[in-house]
């Protein structure tokens, strides 16, 4: 990607940008390289706000990541690329020469910083000894299981218990069931599902559930990141239209009324499915 900033794909065609419903960031920037992961994530946030202008108000957590996302969405005097640079400066450290190189995996570039924004409280009670355990889950990993539908895998990923929920006297409780209760803190606004081990090709995105409900709180599918040839792109969804985003292309965004009309390179596979909290 380092050479891509000099290619024709990294140059924005302003005449074509007018045809898309909202402005999105382009790849790179001044002293900023390998931004495809951040570009895709920010494009998803922009799409969510375009669908629901009240969305930034849901981002009420005080953690640094949430504050950076809200500041990016609420704008200011900068254009979208200027706001992207401010977002990067808030969350990442520059090198000794003042450059930001965001090379990495989506987990460490985005999700490691978003733990509070993704927190779900899990409380379990053993039906045998009635011992209660509580923990916080902030990463949702969907394992391989071709016999289960995506929606089943996602709910399993949310409610799956960790070792912290083991009874103190396991030999007494044996295989006793656990009664599980889920809680959604007010500061939680995003559920990212890691589908990388499922190895789902991009044409399976349409099979993902459009929404998930956790303890009465609704989360809607707003973006699915894709990886192919060491480059991240994403598909956005506003509950009506589908969008293909690639910050290295010009224009970087295409809108389609149906998923079938999207053109996605066949070598791309699904990485993370993002569900964002909504009041609608």
UniProtKB/TrEMBL annotation:
The protein, known as: USP domain-containing protein
């Amino acid at each position: 990607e380092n050479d891509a900033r000099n290619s024709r794909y990294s140059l924005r065609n302003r005449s074509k940008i007018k045809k898309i419903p909202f402005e999105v960031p382009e790849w790179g920037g001044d002293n900023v390289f390998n931004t495809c992961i951040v570009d895709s994530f920010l494009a998803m946030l922009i799409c969510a706000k375009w669908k629901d202008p009240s969305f930034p108000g849901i981002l009420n957590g005080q953690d640094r990541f949430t504050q950076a996302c809200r500041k990016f969405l609420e704008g200011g005097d900068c254009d979208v690329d200027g706001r992207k640079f401010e977002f990067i400066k808030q969350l990442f450290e520059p090198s000794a020469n003042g450059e930001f190189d965001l090379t990495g995996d989506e987990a460490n570039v985005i999700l490691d910083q978003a733990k509070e924004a993704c927190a779900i409280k899990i409380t379990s009670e053993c039906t045998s000894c009635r011992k209660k355990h509580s923990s916080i889950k902030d990463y949702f990993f969907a394992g391989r299981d071709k016999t289960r539908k995506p929606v089943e895998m996602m709910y399993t990923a949310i409610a799956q218990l960790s070792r912290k929920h083991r009874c103190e006297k396991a030999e007494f409780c044996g295989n006793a069931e656990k009664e599980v209760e889920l809680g959604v803190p007010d500061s939680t606004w995003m559920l990212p599902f890691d589908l990388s081990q499922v190895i789902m090709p991009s044409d399976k995105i349409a099979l993902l559930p459009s929404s998930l409900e956790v303890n009465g709180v609704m989360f809607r599918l707003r973006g699915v990141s894709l990886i192919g040839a060491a480059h991240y792109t994403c598909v956005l969804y506003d509950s009506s239209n589908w969008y293909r985003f690639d910050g290295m292309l010009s224009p970087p965004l295409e809108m389609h009324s149906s998923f079938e009309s999207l053109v996605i390179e066949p070598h791309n596979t699904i990485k993370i499915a993002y569900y964002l909290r909504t009041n609608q």
